[in-house]
Amino acid sequence: MIKKFFVVALVLMMVLSACAAPEAKAEVPEVCGTDSFGCAVFSKEDPIKVGYAGPLAGDYAAYGQDQVNAMLLAIKDAGDILGWTIEMVAEDDGASAEGGAAVANKMVSDPLFVAIAGPAFSGDSAAAIPIFEKAGIPMMSPSATNPELTAKDSKVFNRNAFTDVDQAVAASAYLFDTAGVRKIAVLHDGGDYGQGIANGVSANFTAAGGEVVAFEAITAGEADYSAVLAAVASNSPEAIYYGGYNAEASVLVNQMKQAGLENVIFFAGDGIYGTDFLTKAGENGEGALCTTMVPPASEARIKFDEAFVAAYGVEPGTITAYTWGSYDALAVLLHVIEQVAIVSGDTLYIPRGALVDAVRNVEDFQGVAGTISCQSNGECNASGPIIYNVKDGDWVVVD
Amino acid sequence: MKKLNKKALRVLLVIGKYARWTVGIALALFLTWRIYQVLFVQQAFTADTWLRFALSGLILGGMYALIAIGYTLVYGIMFMINFAHGEVMMIGAFCCYFVFEALRFIPAPIAGNPDLVFLNAYPILSILIAFLVGMTVSGFSGYFLEKIAYRPLRHAPRLILLITAIGASIFLQNAAMLLFGPQRKNIVNPDILTRTAGWTIQVAGKPVLISYTGAFSLILSALLMIGLYFLVQKTKLGRSMRAVAQDQDSAALMGVDVNKVVSQTFIISGILAGASGVMWGIHMGLVNHITGSLPGIKAFTAAVLGGVGNIPGAMLGGITLGVIESMGPALFGIDFQLKDVIAFLTLIIVLIIRPSGILGEKLTEEKL
Fold first, then answer.
1. How far is A226 from chain B (nearest CA, A)?
2. ipTM of the modeled complex
3. Which SS3 state, helix, strand or coil, does residue A395 take?
4. Do residue B230 and residue B84 come from a single domain?
5. B234-262 pLDDT, tens per residue?
6. For chain A, which domains are there?
7. Of A230, A247, A257, which is closest to B196 when you measure between CB atoms?
8. How far is CA A171 from CA A122, A215, A236, B67, in A?
9. Chain B residues with CB inside 8 Å of A227's CB?
10. What is the H or E stretch that residue B334 is in?
């Protein structure tokens, strides 16, 4: 009996050592020993997992679906990384802080997970940053615009979205310098985004030497703003800046003429960009301006647009303005992964610490939405906000 | 025991009366001072701006008034607040949207304009159809609302009816959301009634636009209110409605078919809500499932302001509320986001001074 057991054990040991033998031949890269977060190790069958966290159900589901669609195209275009397949892990965080933390915890527990192109919103990003920070997983958010996020000295958080501060600067600069406006009225919907950007514009415009003749809040969700517009009109501004979303903006432009604001410029943040504003405002929306992430037409963009239409049957940018940025966010991550990955024998090693640093040091990456170069704080949007206006019923870049 | 209670009540009423007047006068003085400050000291707005405020207030007020009449009619007859009334108005607005959309797909080519559609070829007829459809559908909605949700509970305590009404309101809202989707729909008017067209008048050297849609809404709500007044005061139906409002049992004894009168009341209130819904659609141009909820609450406020159960009171309350909402923030020199605060504060002040509303009948001790 004992003899039999001994023989079985011996055979087992031989089999095991035979299996281990070829791996021992290929060396583990030296950097894996020195890297602060170690290496992610992929055997031949393991996919390289990259992720996205955002709203995939509920009120904001359109954002998540649009972004994931764009990212799937990025994976398709990248093909594989040094022969290893790429797998997309898209998780629904409900656009909430709790969801952001839960999804982040789930992702870091997977040893094959290396990078995330997200989260989508500012709230879930803030909750997810500390978790990814501990695991050494680089982030590249295409749409979290809260300025605070990059002020937290995080090593892993980057974004190729511009911030609301950038939008405010660009808007007031355009109004003051290009349009030559000296008196503006600022309206907002009282929300975090709307009020923040409205405050930014009025501060910048005043600093530039202009005058903010009226600063009013409106109640979101109403169908009649004629009273507040009449009050604004009595100060005879040359332009109106609005911080908020398209539902209220379209009501405002529809009622501006009745309130005696016929030849007044209407300018807003990226919240109004999209086809919704065009259909609801119709002719009244003609000439309205906004800052947006939508890139100007370029060769890369035209190519991407064709591929997107072929894959999903809709023009990119019709659902959200983040389609191009989402593609770029994942594309730049995949590009960096390919640079730092090391193949040794049949195994792929991705040193996590080196990956985090490499993402932060990206220079002149040509995406479909423009050039991506990361600053030391993680702001990677080198192109800045682009100003669009409505011309003949369509959004076009301002010349 | 009962006698003691009555005595205590009487004392309370007397104390209440003086406390009310003190608070009321203090508030009135404060508000007068504030208005004086804005009008004569700061002079923030010129006459043309005040006219614009007044216009937008009157138009909004006319629609509030029409909806408020529905609340008041039903309250007068059944002593219940029909919280689903705003949703009936939403149904009217949707009818306007669907009629206009349908008519835009019917071609009506004439020589020289092959692309002309029915909506622009016969705009007046189109608007009439929209009103006809909107008022019919809303009238039926009111009828079935009463038949399904309220009639089985006719003799239940009033609180139960109130809860049912809230339930019906939530049901209608969600049904509309599931049927038509949550996005706001854009209502495209016939070309002669575009929202930016109108008469321009010169006030204080500045042009003030009186939009056709606004003038149209205002005139139509006035006509409907006059019509309703004659209906209630001069017709047999009106007389039976008033009889049921006074005392259901006695009216039944005198040969009035109470069920029929209640049904008719709901149909009339539905028709009025439908008309104001179509007007809302034509003037505001946007509709989705929650379109009715805020105007519904405002109109309820207007009904209470004017004296619930009193038809001229509802008209006065609606117009007053609309004007206060649009002029209030400017008049008191505060932020426009606080217009609802001003509207409801006005309600509180009126209720402190006159608990039964501006034109409401005084609640006598017997009725208490």
1. 6
2. 0.74
3. strand
4. yes
5. 999 899 988 888 888 888 898 889 889 99
6. 30-162+300-372 (3.40.50.2300), 164-292 (3.40.50.2300)
7. A257
8. 21, 16, 20, 43
9. 52-53, 56-57, 325-327, 329-330, 336, 339
10. none
